[in-house]
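Checklist before submission:
- one chain only
- standard amino acids only
- sequence pasted in full

Submission:
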Amino acid sequence: MLGYDRPQNLSISYIYQLPSLGRKYFRGNRFAGGALDNWQLSGIANFQSGAPQRVGIGSISCAPSSNPLCGSGNFTGSNETWYGTPDRAMAPLLTFNPQYGANFHGVNSDWFNPGSASLPNINQPGTYVQPQFLGPGSNNWDMTLFKSFSLGEDRRLEFRWAAFDVFNRAQLDNPQTGANFVWQLPPGATSLSQGHAILTNPNTFGYILDKHGHREMEFAIKLFF
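Returned file contents:
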């Protein structure tokens, strides 16, 4: 899936003439009618599903550092170490769908399961075709309240109050998709193929660490002449 793909995307725009409270409750009162009548409310609401996510490899180190196999001449932590060539892409090994077993309950919790990712054995392929899963969706409401005051035949004054993200609902960031590993060799190992992967960032990989957005408001007065 392309990074900008959104399976669901709904936008609703509207404009609503508010009830004339001055005319209803203060009939004949010009001041009440001028202050309370002819207000309009307009807005745009947008709802969309999250962006496609793909698990990637952040970094790979080697341990124990005392083993010569972990030296810079032998271990680069890249596709050259795994496949002997930079021309073959490297991918993590997904042992199950990352969304299975996730325990998301807000910021600083796992959107997908950190235990789903590992590294393939040396000379073995990773999971190039990954299950499709999405980041968090979003919904946003922008509203404007406005009214025009007549100042004569050719002049009018417009008051406008706009609120962006009017309900002050912060949107969740995407989860952390970079998995960091250490390639752990057993004591006395004589080949890198004897090692196994250990995830070194289980408390951040797959987690949503923050959210963004807040309400913004602006007031404007326009004179038309």
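Reviewer check: The chain has three helices and 16 strands.
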